[in-house]
Structures are given as structure tokens and as C-alpha cells.
Write a structure and sequence with these properties.
Blueprint (H helix, E strand, L loop, with lengths): L3 H18 L2 E4 L8 E5 L1 H13 L3 E5 L4 E4 L2 E3 L3 E5 L4 E4 L14 E6 L5 E3 L3 E3 L6 E3 L6 E2 L16 E6 L2 E11 L6 E4 L2 E11 L10 E4 L2 E6 L2 E4 L4 E4 L5 E13 L2 E7 L5 E14 L1 E7 L5 E13 L13 E5 L11 E13 L3 E4 L6 E13 L9 E3 L7 E3 L3 E6 L1 E13 L9 E5 L4 E13 L1
Parallel strand pairs: 1-3, 2-4, 3-6, 4-7, 5-8, 6-9, 7-10, 8-13, 9-14, 10-14, 13-15, 14-16, 15-17, 16-18, 16-19, 17-20, 18-21, 19-21, 21-23, 22-24, 23-25, 24-26, 25-27, 26-28, 27-29, 28-32, 29-33, 32-34, 33-35
Antiparallel strand pairs: 11-12, 30-31
């Protein structure tokens, strides 16, 4: 019998495929698009999208070989962008290429639509390299568009693709490349499918997240390849909860966290399922940064292979394969509860240990580690000896490296878990467990081992 996440995925795919299979087919070149990569094709593309929507929906085709430079284009209900293999949509690098409001800075933007999508085998490219002021192997210095006052700081850059307040979204068989900021952003969406999507971001560019699922529900992500500098799959709860999210059969490499809850966490996360995912040489593997009072419950991570390593202390993370934390961001925030979290059939090779940290008034509860193989091996030259609580909380704290650090937990099951250590040349490297008895209770160990090799 098929599992519930699989049935959900099949149902969503059928519904969305039906809504996107009918209608007209038009080419942007029919409406005057040149596709030379130098002249803006925005008007021609938008006219093609609007004409397709007016005729009841269908597909807007970008012929192979073209490079279609554009300012923001707006998707309509029932319209699918079919970017043929060998075709590119290029995002403009000028601030005037984007709407006045920074919240609408996307190369492709869909607002309050139903049944829209992107496919075709081609590429949407944000030309992120044009936003680099100074290349830096630690962290590139980027162009910021904060002169309008609508946004502040160094994150005022355009995202690549955004679906906002939309339903029955489907993005499949497409490459999303070189975003200047976040890559694929789902905001307050319902019934979204992201499958067979390839995401590439510059490895030294900050904030170029792969897929951000913000306040969105009933989401399926499958067979995706994400290779980027910041968080790869990132649920966020800013204005509402995030529930019924499934991600499967994918490959991730990131200089930040591969799967990260938060750090925007004002509302609850529940019923998430992550299965058969390879996380390769990432700065952090599975993470929860709950800082704003939202709660997390009923999450399963299963059948995963993880490798983590230090890249630079400037980036959040210390090469933890699993990092579960809840603490108040600042004096105006509060910690949230994290409960019913399952880790099943997971193997990892990492330069640091598992980090489990609740708070005095927001304990971690009912955590289950079942069939877990943890291998600890140092191969980079960065110094250890720090716990990383960022953002906020305690910041960076000196410590010995433990195989599993635990604090403020009530209910932890460890069943068939092994720890293996390579080398002994680092201070405190071989400590299997570190916890304060006064803050941890209801721990169960069954078939647990720790060996130095």
C-alpha cells in the first residue's frame, strides 16, 4: 500500500497536470522577442503571457537557442512557461528592472494565480555574478539596492522565481541558475509540486537559498538537485504555519544548512516528511533554528546519507550533521517547543557532533534516533572547540567536541546508534556524550556504541 506522502504527491501531480494540460500554445518570438541576451524582451514576453491567459491559459514557449533578457515578468493563472532546452531567461541586473516594492523583486513573479507553472528543460538565470562588488572566497560582497528605503542592509537584491498567494503551482524539469538572492520562493501557497528541478547558486554568495517554503502548505519536492551557497530547503513561518511538506529523492550541497527550519519561526511547523536525500559536503546537515515562538512537531527524516565539513566560521554552522535548537532570538522573542521528531536510517560523516539544545521554558521532547551511524572525521584545517547558537541566543560558546551534545530535553530515545571516531589529535575530540543531568531526563539507550578507530 502506498504511503501517505506518496499518495499526496500523486494526487497533487494529477490535479495540477490536468489544470495545466489544456489551452493555447504561443511563442514569445511571435510577439517580437529577439532573444539575443542584450536587448530587453520584457514587453514581448508579457504580451505573450497575457494573450495566453486571455485565451483560457496554456503554454508560453521560449524557443531553444534564445537568451531572453527581461525585467520582472508576471505569470497569470493557467499559464505555464515552457523554456525549451537550450533557452535562457536572463534576469536584468538593474534596480529599475524590478517593481518599486522590494517584496516583489523577482525575475519571474506569480501573484494570486492558480494552475501556473514553469517547465521545458531550459534555464532561468539571475545573473548573480553581476551583483558581486568584490569576490571573496569567504563571502562575496554584494550589490544592495537599499537606496529606496523599502529594505535595509545587504540583502536588498532580487530573488529569482516567486509564487505568492497561489494554488496548484508546479515547477518541473527546469534549471534555476545563479540567483542574486533566494532562488525559488513559495509564499502562502497551497498544493505546490517542485520536481526534477536543478538549482545552482554561487558557492560564496550569501542568501542564495535554494527553495524557501514560507507560510505554504501541502507542498511536494522531489528529485531535485540543489548546489548553492546558502540554505537549500528552508521552511519559514512568517505570517502563518507550514504543514504537510514532503521532500524526497534529492541531492544537496550547500555552504550553509541543507534542510533548515527557520530561522523565521513565528508560527508552527507540523507534518513534515523528508526521505531518501543525500547531503554532500555541506556546512550543516539537518537543522532547526526556532527563535520566534513557533512550535515544531511531527517531523520525520529518513533514509539519508550526510557528509558535513567546516567551510568558514563566518557562516552559521560548525559541520553538525544534525542541529536541533530552540531559544529566544532576543529579549522581545520567545523559544518554541520542538516535539515528536524522528531520525530513522541515517548515516553521516562529519567534522562535528549532533547538537540538541532546547531552552529552559521550551524543552525538546520525544526525539527518536533509530538505526543511526555517526562517523566523526576531521579533514579541514579550521579549528573546532565552539558551539554555534547563532542567530541570537548565546552566539558562539567554547566547548569540547562531543558526539552528541544534549541540553533541555525531556524524552530522547537512542536505538541502534553507533559512533565511530577517526583520529585523536584534537582536544576533547573523543567525548561521546555531553549533557547536564539537571536539564535532561527520560533518556533511553538501546544498542548504542562508541568506538575510536
Amino acid at each position: 500500500m502506498a504511503s501517505l506522502p506518496l499518495l499526496l504527491f500523486l494526487l497533487l501531480t494529477i490535479i495540477i497536470a490536468v489544470t495545466q494540460s489544456n489551452g493555447s500554445h504561443v511563442s514569445v518570438t511571435t510577439f517580437g522577442a529577439i532573444g539575443d541576451g542584450h536587448h530587453y524582451d520584457t514587453t514581448s514576453i508579457q504580451h505573450a503571457i497575457d494573450a495566453c491567459a486571455s485565451s483560457g491559459g496554456g503554454r508560453v514557449r521560449f524557443p531553444a537557442g534564445g537568451k531572453y533578457l527581461t525585467a520582472t515578468i508576471f505569470l497569470r493563472s493557467g499559464v505555464v512557461l515552457e523554456i525549451e532546452k537550450g533557452a535562457q531567461i536572463l534576469g536584468g541586473p538593474r534596480q529599475e528592472d524590478y517593481p518599486k516594492e522590494s517584496a516583489r523583486w523577482y525575475v519571474v513573479l506569480a501573484e494570486k494565480v492558480k494552475g501556473a507553472g514553469i517547465t521545458g528543460g531550459g534555464e532561468i538565470n539571475g545573473q548573480g555574478w553581476k551583483f558581486i562588488v568584490r569576490p571573496d572566497p569567504r563571502k562575496n560582497i554584494m550589490v544592495s539596492w537599499n537606496s529606496t528605503g523599502d529594505c535595509l542592509g545587504d540583502e536588498c537584491r532580487p530573488r529569482l522565481v516567486g509564487f505568492i498567494d497561489s494554488t496548484d503551482v508546479r515547477v518541473w524539469n527546469v534549471t534555476l541558475n545563479q540567483p542574486a538572492y533566494w532562488c525559488l520562493h513559495l509564499v502562502r501557497c497551497s498544493n505546490s509540486v517542485v520536481e526534477d528541478v536543478r538549482i545552482y547558486g554561487d558557492f560564496n554568495t550569501p542568501n542564495n537559498d535554494g527553495i524557501d517554503i514560507e507560510d505554504s502548505n501541502h507542498t511536494m519536492i522531489t528529485r531535485c538537485h540543489i548546489d548553492t551557497g546558502d540554505d537549500a530547503i528552508c521552511p519559514k513561518s512568517s505570517t502563518g504555519p507550514v504543514y504537510n511538506l514532503t521532500a524526497t529523492d534529492s541531492w544537496i550541497r550547500t555552504k550553509s544548512c541543507a534542510i533548515k527550519f527557520g530561522s523565521a519561526s513565528f508560527f508552527d511547523f507540523s507534518k513534515h516528511y523528508y526521505n531518501n536525500i543525500t547531503i554532500f559536503e555541506s556546512h550543516r546537515g539537518l537543522g532547526m533554528q526556532i527563535r520566534d515562538g513557533g512550535n515544531v512537531s511531527d517531523v520525520t527524516f529518513s533514509n539519508m546519507k550526510i557528509s558535513t565539513r567546516y567551510y568558514d566560521p563566518l557562516w552559521w554552522g560548525r559541520a553538525e550533521p544534525i542541529y536541533i535548537t530552540s531559544c529566544a532570538r532576543d529579549s522581545s522573542s520567545k523559544a518554541g517547543f520542538i516535539s515528536n521528531i524522528n531520525f530513522v536510517n541515517i548515516s553521516s560523516v562529519s567534522e562535528n557532533g549532533v547538537f540538541l539544545s532546547g531552552s529552559k521554558h521550551a524543552l525538546l521532547s520525544n526525539l527518536n534516533f533509530i538505526n543511526i551511524e555517526l562517523v566523526y572525521k576531521r579533514w579541514s584545517n579550521y579549528s573546532g572547540g565552539l558551539y554555534d547558537y547563532r542567530p541570537g541566543c548565546q552566539g558562539l560558546v567554547k566547548h569540547n567536541t562531543a558526539g552528541m551534545m544534549m541540553e533541555y530535553i525531556s524524552g530522547l530515545q537512542i536505538k541502534n546508534v553507533s559512533m565511530r571516531w577517526f583520529g585523536s589529535g584534537f582536544k576533547g575530540w573523543n567525548d561521546p556524550l555531553e549533557f547536564k543531568a539537571s536539564s535532561v531526563d527520560k533518556i533511553s539507550f538501546h544498542d548504542w556504541s562508541s568506538d575510536v578507530l
